[in-house]
Design brief:
By secondary structure, the chain is mainly alpha-helical. It is built from three helices and no strands.
């Protein structure tokens, strides 16, 4: 497993440790969780922006529920 070093002030370290303690996880897990949560949020925002731009340019096609069921070939399963 890889190892990463992170330089922080004593105050920052204490805040980070308090956060991890509050959530009952290790400092390493807290940092990883926060990093990947932020990454996911940025990806979600990028996806939303791309969708909104495509919608604005008329590049989005909507389908009814029945059309989706038909496309999937599962009309007899519902």
């Amino acid at each position: 497993m890889a190892h990463i070093s992170l330089r922080v002030t004593d105050i920052e370290k204490k805040i980070m440790e308090n956060y991890a303690d509050f959530h009952g996880i290790t400092l390493s897990d807290a940092i990883k969780n926060i990093f990947f949560q932020k990454l996911e949020e940025e990806y979600d925002l990028k996806t939303i922006t791309e969708f909104e731009n495509a919608e604005k340019h008329g590049e989005v096609k909507y389908k009814t529920f029945d059309e989706v069921i038909d496309d999937l070939g599962i009309e007899n399963e519902i």
